[in-house]
């Protein structure tokens, strides 16, 4: 068994996107990727596969009769991953395993028994400029009745060669490079397109050569429950022909909260008129829902957000510029939080309460030496997102008697495997909530939030069993309105509905 460690840079990913034509924003747009379950851009599955193939001798790759790649976890730029090769016999199959942070990210099974060899290098081609394209955006219902369709594939082969050469994969035969790049282009730009996640590729070389690259795409099946999409493609071109089966997931679109969706759980009123509230992380998810719920009750909501200008504009437009006051800042930065406090001073604002909803992207991590640094970073980042805004507002803007909402999680009662870092961060958050209750005189609510369908958990099954985000925001807002004299509460959701108990009695 042999292996090598690879680190893809952001420049590698951008170059592959430009050369292959797969400019899906999940790979190249930090703002888009930040709103996904991954929290940042991920490398193309095809690019990861090509770097892994560099560990197989070229004379064996030219006898490719079948390639199956299964993708289980993302690989992020600047994050090392390790490729191991199992199968050294000249006439045997080869298994490539790609591990990242101590867990299996991908597996590639190669059958290298074809009697007819693939050409190693194609004749030089004129470089084809890649115009900027926009990936298709589908719904599951729209995909189901689609007939087959054909699209040309104009690839910049010299540039593609430069990318794989820079990653020590120069000896991978051109046909395999082109087929894998085109498979990623089909899933990233066509089916499922913009909101898809590639789960697997099965590639089989076939007979036939034509001068112009042509791709026939067929949707074989769609599962509306899980978002599974099965598609096929037939490739034709100077490099030869191939058939490809593609397994992907189409993420269900997250519907942002609206006046109408909140009305079903909390009728609009003026019960919080004249109150000033700050929501940290108010552009999306629970933060956006809480911003809307509090504004619908007459409060002026100072909504802090980091980068999602478009999302924040949507929230403000929906709930009113007179009620929603966006403030763009990095809430982990001491100077920027001090600037927010100074801005509130100049506005003559003393807050009635604060909702601390910001959190890093969720992703499972094993207890493994390669994951320790990431786990520690996650816990630290989680605490920074609550402690910096909280400490920067105390005591002048959050005097004793004001309130604070701390967002924990229902998984505290039954922690999932590989979520130790997440549970540790929420345990620390709950400890700080008790600290604020006892020593700072704040009325605190620890929200052990149920599963909700938000951008941070928008995986293929993200909406299954999820409680409406508006219901959670409405329950928190009702707690604010009720103004119970008890200083500390825990809010859980039992069978989808809020249940409040004294924080002191909770373990």
Structural description of this entry:
The protein is of the alpha/beta class and 507 residues long. It folds into two domains: 2-118 and 152-191, Hotdog Thioesterase (Thiol Ester Dehydrase, Chain A), CATH 3.10.129.10; 259-505, NAD(P)-binding Rossmann-like Domain (Rossmann fold, 3-Layer(aba) Sandwich), CATH 3.40.50. 32% of the residues lie in helices and 24% in strands. The protein has 15 helices and 18 strands. The protein has a ten-stranded antiparallel β-sheet, covered by helices on one side. The protein has an eight-stranded mixed β-sheet with strand order 13-12-11-14-15-16-17-18, with helices on both faces. The chain is elongated, with a radius of gyration of 26 Å.
In percent terms, what proportion of residues is strand? 15-25%
Name of the level-1 CATH class of the largest domain: Alpha Beta
**Domains, number:** 2
CATH level-4 homologous superfamily of the largest domain:
NAD(P)-binding Rossmann-like Domain
Q: Compute the average pLDDT.
A: 91
Task: Please report the total strand number as a whole number.
Answer: 18
Q: Which overall shape is indicated by the principal axes computed on the Cα atoms?
A: elongated
How many H/I helical runs?
15
CATH names the topology of the largest domain as Rossmann fold
Our measurement of the CA-to-CA distance between the termini, rounded to an integer number of angstroms, reads 49 Å
**Helix vs. strand class:** alpha/beta
